[in-house]
Design goal:
Blueprint (H helix, E strand, L loop, with lengths): L1 E10 L3 H12 L5 E5 L4 E8 L2 E8 L5 H9 L2 E9 L2 H10 L10 E2 L5 E5 L9 E5 L8
Parallel strand pairs: 1-4, 5-8
Antiparallel strand pairs: 1-5, 2-3, 3-4, 6-7, 7-8
Bound molecules: cobalt (II) ion (CO).
Length: 139
Amino acid sequence: MISGVNHLGIAVRDLEASMELYRSIFRVETFHRERVEEQKVEIASFSVGGVLLELTAPTSEDSPIAKFLEKRGEGIHHVAFTTDAVSADLERLAGDGVQLINKTPQRGAHDMLIAFLHPKSTGGVLMELCEPQKTSQTS
Ligand code: CO
């Protein structure tokens, strides 16, 4: 079941430059840094009121984030929702005719199981479902 907003994914070209920007806006002291090979991205995230802001830069030219930056430029990339059962949600949504980008859960940052829904089926908003593992840190 989906229970809340987990994070906002923000596409950035230069992780260091954008960390500087967010550091000055939010007075962020520490970022969680992680390279997620499966998604071909490197992230720097921090928490505001329990919601993560996840600055996401591509690590290769064929990364989905690289394609997004090319087409749309920097900005909000996706909204991610917390769920306790991503597989069950995918099954339910597929049954309801929602188009899925990931038919099975993938490994995302913070050791979460994640899957993206196609923006064609969600009113133009790229949505991600994330299931934190029992041991994972979300900040
Ligand atoms: Co995300």
